Amino acid sequence: MAGLALIVCGGCAAGHGQDTVFTGTNKGADRIRIAPANFHADSPDAAALKGTFDAVLESDLKNAGVFDVVSKSMEPQAEPSSPKDIRLPEWGGGNTNAAYVAFGGFGVAGGRAVVNAWVFDTHNAQFPQVIGKQYTDAANDETARQMAHRFADEIILRLGGGIPGIAETKIYYVHAGGGTKEIWAMDYDGANPHAVTHLGTIALSPRVSPDNSRIAFSALGNDGFQIRVFSLLLNRMVNFPSGGGGTNLTPAWSTNGQLAWSSSRSGDPEIYVADGNGNGPHRVTSSRGPDVSPSWNPKTGSQIAWISGRTSLPQLYIMDADGAGVQRMTDGGYATSVSWSPNGQFLAFAWNRKYGPGAPGGQDIYVMEVASKKWIQLTNGMGQCDFPTWSPDGRHIAFAVGSGPRGQVWSMLADGTSKHKLVAGDMPNWSFR
Amino acid sequence: MPVLEEQTDEKRSTVKEFAGSVVLHVLVLGGLFGSAYLFHHDGEKWGDSAEQAGAVQATMVSSIPLPPKVQPKEDSVLASETPSVAPPPPVVKAEPPPRPTDVPVVVKKPEKKTPPPKIADKPTYTPPRVQPQRTDPQRAASGQTGGVRIAMQAIQNRIGTSAINVTDQSFGDRFGYYVRQMNQRISQQWYTQTLDSGAQGRRVYLTFRIDRDGTPNTVKIVQSSGDQTLDSSAVRALERIDSLGPLPEGYNGSYINVQYYFEPSQ
Predict the structure, then answer these.
(1) Which residues of A touch B246 (CB under 8 A)?
(2) Tens of pLDDT, residues A194-225
(3) Cβ-defined contact of A18 to B188 (cutoff 8 Å)
(4) pTM of the predicted model, to two decimals?
(5) Number of CB pairs < 8 Å for A and B?
(6) How much is the ipTM here?
(7) What angle do CA B182, B186, B187 make, to 5 degrees?
(8) Sheet of A315-320: strands edge to edge?
(9) Mutate to test the interface with B, among A12, A27, A373 (most CBs of B within 10 A)
(10) Burial A115-129, CB ≥16 within 10 A → b, else e
(11) Is beta strand A224-231 parallel, antiparallel or unpaired with respect to B216-223?
């Protein structure tokens, strides 16, 4: 087997401008095996926070979907605190057999937590260092968690093929309780769920803006469902013109800050597009039957996928942002909500393929390649799945299982593996970054 | 002609009229069904599961930026070559001979059935059989693709930094991890389904540049493999990649040149 040959040309203009790397492939690639070591407690009172840091770092690496994370029980007992303490053969061989090891020290001094973190390449004895970082922040559980997220994102960026990690992203969702539905937010792993709005009404389908500064959602008021906008910077509601009344639902931000939503101001639910402040709304669909749930192509910002009932049962369509070039994507069944993947290649949507009286089948999450219209089913037999939303790295999808007070927000890898529940809630929306 | 007219006028009868009408109806219906049969367009619609040649076909899950799955090995299932020792067959008890004092009973006795001796089946190793994929008749013929399409035969292949001709201070030595993750990323994006059968064993050499932010550009074929499909699949693999990750922080240069070869496995 020829394997992967790395022939590195040395001395080619070393140190200035460029180096030349010879490399090649004829076989596949496997997941990178990485061992997150327990960090060394540099001060006696750091133990509790260090435990949080270790656990969050390990779970972030596991969630990333690109690593084969070594179980802690397979790791050496040592807790190296700095590069001079670590013995790489211990980590690179034996049961651990890791290609990389993440380690470091966690100290607390004067109310500040200081984390020195490294990632070493176990098979490169001469230049083992891949990452060396220092993080300092106030010493509490939340910041320990955030520092672990930051370090994990750095590892994922450096080792995961240049796609930034999502450990620092947030998920916004609808929390039902006490007869009202409010917008809540949480970390991507379900930690730290907290309320964002306190409107005391029914708020639906939150969508966070690309710069994480505002949340648009649909809320029930005296004039029916209207698009409302909450500013995360000002921490209060900001104005959004209600326009011509009617029922306004399912807002969606484009990457350049435009807003599309569904409005029935003309009597029939149609897709409208306006700028981020709601100025200059104009209609882009014009056929009989409801048009709802728009989702922009985040890659180009010039296409919209949406759900249309123009041929009786709701189906998935895509069009240009000006309403031209309409294409139907699903060939039947009952499609409900759609999310366009960050690289623009895929649509994730909820679909009941066998819809009708007496028909088997439930509503599940599917992913379709836009170019070929080929699809795969990602969920099966776990209840009514709806509201898929892509993570910014395109490797994860969050979705809702069930609805109302019994609804749950779940997360999975975009190939349908490692599903896990995050919180009780509904209608999740993953932030852009 | 006048003769014919006369005949029809004279021999008009209900039976004939009825028969004529039946024939006419049959003709009309036959024409309808016949034309539907003749002009029925049986073309491919989108969503058909028909095989289509093109790079886009198998890119479904591979384009999701997750590493390909290593398929479970078929031969590591429970079937073993060394079966455990089979338990001995149960001893069959002989019936005692009838005593002479026994009065023969007139009533017909059903014959006592002796259970057949139990012999444990010897687990024999059967080689895994590849079953042809059967299509489910209950399933609509729209374009479902397999859940996991592997860009290539994913073989666990630990890429060492065991580089040849390494001189000090060179990029690959200093930042072995970067070369490794770059290699992995490119491997993931290389789809071998479009290759000709003649591409096996050939090798195409490319060069490209990676900028500071990780963007690959100026992809050039240095030495063609002689196989068009292999050459273009290699170039496309790099075109699919937006970024290979920012160059290592410890590296001062503004870009690196990479020479890369693609060789499909046998």
Answers:
(1) 157, 162
(2) 999 999 999 999 999 999 999 999 999 998 99
(3) no
(4) 0.73
(5) 264
(6) 0.77
(7) 115
(8) A291-296, A303-308, A315-320, A327-328
(9) A27
(10) bbbbbbbbbbeebbb
(11) unpaired
